[in-house]
Amino acid sequence: MSTYLNRSTLLDTQEATALREQTRQYFHQTADLYESLFQTLVSDEAYYVNPIKLRHPLIFYYGHTNTFFINKLILAGLITERVNPQFESMFAVGVDEMGWDDINAQNYNWPTPLEVKTYRASVRKVVDQLICTLPLNLPMDWDNQWWTILMGIEHERIHLETSSVLIRQHALHYVQKKDTWRSCSAINTIAPSNSLVDIPPRLIKLSKSPEHYGWDNEYGNFETECTAFQAAKYLTSNAEFLTFVEAGGYKEDSYWQEEGLAWRHYAQAMHPTFWVQQGDVWKLRLMTEEVAMPWSWPVEVNYHEAKAFCNWHSANTGKQVRMPSEHEWYSLYAHAGLSDEKVRGSMNANLFLDHYASSCPVNTYAHGDLYDVVGNVWQWTETPIFPFDGFKVHPLYDDFSTPTFDGRHNIIKGGSWIASGNEALKDARYAFRRHFFQHAGFRYIVTDTPLQIHASHYETDKQLSEYAEFHYGDIYYGVPNFPKALSDFAVQHLHTRPAKKALDLGCATGRASFELAKHFDHVTGIDFSARFIGLALKLIQQGILRYTMVNEGDLVSYQERSLAELKLTDVAHKVDFWQGDACNLKPQFTGYDFILAANLIDRLYNPRDFLSNIHHRLNIGGVLMITSPYTWLEEHTPRDQWIGGYKQDGENVSTIDGLKALLDEHFKLMQSPIEIPFVIRETRHKFQHSLSEVTLWERMR
Known about the structure:
Number of helices: 17
Structural class: alpha+beta
Shape: elongated
């Protein structure tokens, strides 16, 4: 660790003994700092009053970080005994701002601050002993057992900041000034006039360095061309934002997006939350005090307020003003010539608690021809957080990132005055709901480049997820992927036949369609389910599919599948998908050289009509491939429509008999039926193993 405080431990440049000792120092430094933060509370009562309605009282956060440590160490198998089972249940969950969160204090028998302090000391001994004795084998990556220890330390660093925000939102009589948490004294300095700096185009290529600990959303790969734009030289100051307030910006609905307008009405906001108006005088609420408004400091607002300001600025200047995207912030970082090494190795930023327990004037720390590219306050971006290509969930903290992949959590970059450890790294990717308050402000940019919003949603519908895994997921019990096996079987038997157009009926989420496109010039996939088609279309548009899989009960795992890893990217342009009824197809779906009806006929409401008319869709000499486990059920198909699986005149009628009877007029059975197995995963411990009978039929007339 460098001689500067609050920097995350370097992982890839040290031998084991030094890394062990520096991790120990970092752990105790973090614990000391967290204890110090809670010393700004004046009384026990301050621990039990909610600073804001939708968060727990501070007693929860005081105990939560050490409970997290114990719970993760047990999960990782590094310890087997709990320190305090009651606390480790009470303080485990409920830290996010959620409307459903049980924040009724009557439901909690909170311990005293002294009891929690004693608990924290006990946990500290457990972790210290572990750090001193646990074997340390390099490299230190997220598969290393030591990763759990780093996770606990960095988790407490996050709550150091979020708890400081809650303390800032607490009533003043519950907090007190401390020398160790001293704010900046440069209150009366004049705010500089903002101007625009030209930022040239550049390639942004992101890949997490092994040098530091990282959260799962930082890993994977991302690459994009960033066009040129202009950026404000300074973060938006209180003085600059005042012009928006005085112009009636909080009253003019047209500046606010729908979500922002709803928040503004709910909050009855007329100015930034931390501004305090007393007659004609403005003050600013800091963590433990109110001071005369420091107009030269960066304004601290949520995303909605920053966006409204940008829209107002656009209307007044005629320019396209907005906040930067995540990759545009990286362009600012590169333009400033910054790196993790340079930032951690200096004090040229209001970061790491190096200077103050507050913001400072926006023209204090220059980074090239920009100021505060890192530090002072977090900077809102226009980017809802999304997973990079290759994203994987860390098994010890599977809900750190994925709940935020909902399109409603925007990324903040750069860090604030209290940001430390992982938070202060270039790769850090933290995201909050757009109405959320952090020590966050914004820098605006001017650009005509439209925003690119990346898809981030994980499919959670159980049936859709099962079919996504069935088509694009792992192989279970040695049974080959079923849609691919069908395609391979078909191609083997089509030989030199025409291969211009193929139709995949009942295509579900589309894997067979993509596989057939390796052989055919064009493939159309049709399914009755719009939801299935939606997943298939997402793959064409984005190349990536993300979904959850049930492991057991409410426990899930997160999967990412891509056309690239399946070697299907080059054929995606040859495939299209439609919602349609196999029993009532539109006229344009005709003229095919091959039709696949996979596991379809026993799910149709009128399979007899389907089979009697399918020849109209197929060219003479074309091939119809039917596969089915023949699971005839009245919930899908009226009994009088069954092709087989019943008795007639006392004799058994099999489905192959029914197929021959219905197809004989126009088709010839090319070979004897075969069986191809398939496995559908329901949970980690429950699978469906089935056999699908496969027949090939050549249209003769």
